[in-house]
Amino acid sequence: MNVFRLVGDLSHLLAIIILLLKIWKTRSCAGVSGKSQILFSLVFITRYLDLFTNFISVYNSVMKIIYLVTSLGTVYLMYFKFKATYDSNHDTFRIEFLVVPVGGLSFLVNHDFTPLEILWTFSIYLESVAILPQLFMISKTGEAETITSHYLFALGSYRALYIVNWVYRYYTEGFFDLIAIVAGCVQTILYCDFFYLYITKVLKGKQLKLPA
Amino acid sequence: DLEEDTKDEL
């Protein structure tokens, strides 16, 4: 463990908590893409199948359980409890266009052709594009609530910090995982224009409005 | 080596 990965994990946890609180407190999931939340739940389920078979550390197991419970809880709130506030008219990204190619790629490009490894690879590739429905939805509505932009900033920062962690681990341990690194770079690049808008607008107190 | 490739990252 290193400080970059720890801050990255905490940023990820913060993002998930921000979203959960936003939906729970406002009792509304307006402006939030349920499809992205479904994809994130799928990412955690396919990645953490070894939760009970492969103990790494207490921290590792506790965080995995928190991620699984909070992401599934968010999906539950969006599609059941506060379903009336779910904006399905703007959340129209075809996620099969993500899941199918990612599924195919995870069979073709992986470290080891075993079920657990292919599912882990699927989860890494899927996570890199899971935010697309959310970014697509914001581009359609042309704006995002400030709390949603804080969520996106924390979520985007987590994988950017993981990239720093991978550079650090490469130079200190000689460890690197090309699949995770390439997918992590794609994932972080997808946030770039949002990061620009967030820093130039939201941090100056303005509403996040995408150029229509 | 790949054998002890324990996935210790979240």
Keywords:
A: 212 residues, two-stranded antiparallel ribbon, 2 strands, B: 10 residues, little secondary structure, 0% helix, 0% strand, ER lumen protein-retaining receptor (chain A), cytoplasmic vesicle (chain A), ER-Golgi transport (chain A)
Walk me through what this model shows.
Chain A: Belongs to the ERD2 family. The complex is a heterodimer of chains A (212) and B (10). Chain A is an all-alpha fold and 212 residues long. Chain A is 71% helix and 2% strand. Chain A has one domain (3-85, 93-203). A two-stranded antiparallel ribbon of chain A has the order 1-2. With 10 residues, chain B is largely without helices or strands. Chain B contains no helices and no strands. Chain B is rod-shaped, with a radius of gyration of 7 Å. The termini of chain B are far apart.
Summarize the structure.
The complex is a heterodimer of chains A (212) and B (10). Chain A is mainly alpha-helical.
Topology (SSEs and partners):
The complex is a heterodimer of chains A (212) and B (10).
Chain A: H1 3-26, H2 34-47, H3 58-81, H4 96-108, H5 115-129, H6 132-141, E1 143-144, H7 146-173, H8 178-190, H9 192-200, E2 208-209
Antiparallel strand pairs in A: 1-2
Helix pairs in contact in A: 1-3, 1-7, 2-3, 2-5, 4-5, 5-8, 7-8
Chain B: no helix or strand
Q: Outline of chain A, from the CA principal axes? A: globular
CA distance, first residue to last residue of chain A:
42 Å
What is the subunit organization of this protein? Answer: heterodimer
Shape of chain B: rod-shaped
Largest sheet of chain B: none
Order of helices and strands of chain A: HHHHHHEHHHE
The fraction of residues assigned to DSSP E strands of chain A is under 5%
Biggest interface pair, counts: A-B, 17 and 7 residues
List the uncertain runs of chain B: none
SS-based class of chain A: mainly alpha
Over the alpha carbons, how many angstroms does the gyration radius of chain B reach? Answer: 7 Å
Distance between the termini of chain B: 20 Å
Tally of helical segments of chain A: 9
| Helical run tally of chain B | 0
Tell me the strand percentage band of chain B.
under 5%
Helical content of chain B (DSSP H or I, runs of 4+): under 10%
User: How confident is the prediction overall: mean pLDDT of chain A?
Assistant: 96
Order of the strands making up the biggest sheet of chain A: 1-2
The count of β-strands of chain A is 2
